[in-house]
Write a structure and sequence with these properties.
- It contains nine helices and eight strands.
- With 272 residues, it is α/β, with parallel strands linked by helices.
- It has an eight-stranded parallel barrel, surrounded by four helices.
- The longest helix is centred in the middle third of the chain and has 20 residues.
Amino acid sequence: MSTNGVALQFAANLSLLYPEHDFLDRYAAAAADGFKGVEMLFPYAWPKEELAARLQGNGLQQVLFNAPPGDMEKGERGMASLPGRQDDFRAGMEQALLYARALGCPRIHVMAGISAGKEAEAQQRDTYLENLDWAARQAAAEGRCVMIEPINQRDMPGYFLKTQAQAHAIVQELGHDNLQVQMDLYHCQIAEGDIETRLRAYLPTGRVGHMQIAGVPQRHEPDRGELNYPYIFRVIQELRYQGWIGCEYRPAEDTSAGLRWMREALAQAAPV
């Protein structure tokens, strides 16, 4: 299997990796382990100026974060598909764009929200498309991309966006170049399986703007669990995916020690 010299780019998810450090110290820890990019869930608990300083001081690029998800304590997991919450969604997206501007971040993940049931599905989908259309236009004006991510029903029961096919159909229907799919292989394996076939179906479309990985089923390091990531990485390289791969997993051990999988992957991917 030829990889055609395409490099693998791994980004540390600072919300999950390096729990042995205070959050703001995770930037230095990631840089020390060789990461050039970082992602996170939600940056809003910290001043954007402080986060920007940490990025600059450690030579890191912010590659992704999430727009505000609504009231998580009340069970909200995003607002994009929720009828009647359009104003809240837009306010959250505007806040996300402020942070993206300050951090130089090119991608914002917009969470869909929880399904209200079959009877509300059509209305939710209409709301989702309306909000995504608006968000993509706002982001395009600043040269940024909006990401949507299917999430498995075991980890997030009732999440509205469930499958790769559903996400790609929405992106294709709206037709914005800067509206893309965030393909998380952990969620994809649990929800659908058949990872290689889906990679071969979707990566060549150009609609996958970001990827994420974790071991399945426990969401630990990628070398723990049922997925053969060395093989998957070769497929990703063969398909010439040139985006970032976010390491969104919960370390089972010290984060740095657990990165042997990444060192091996980069060594195997190096040009001969």
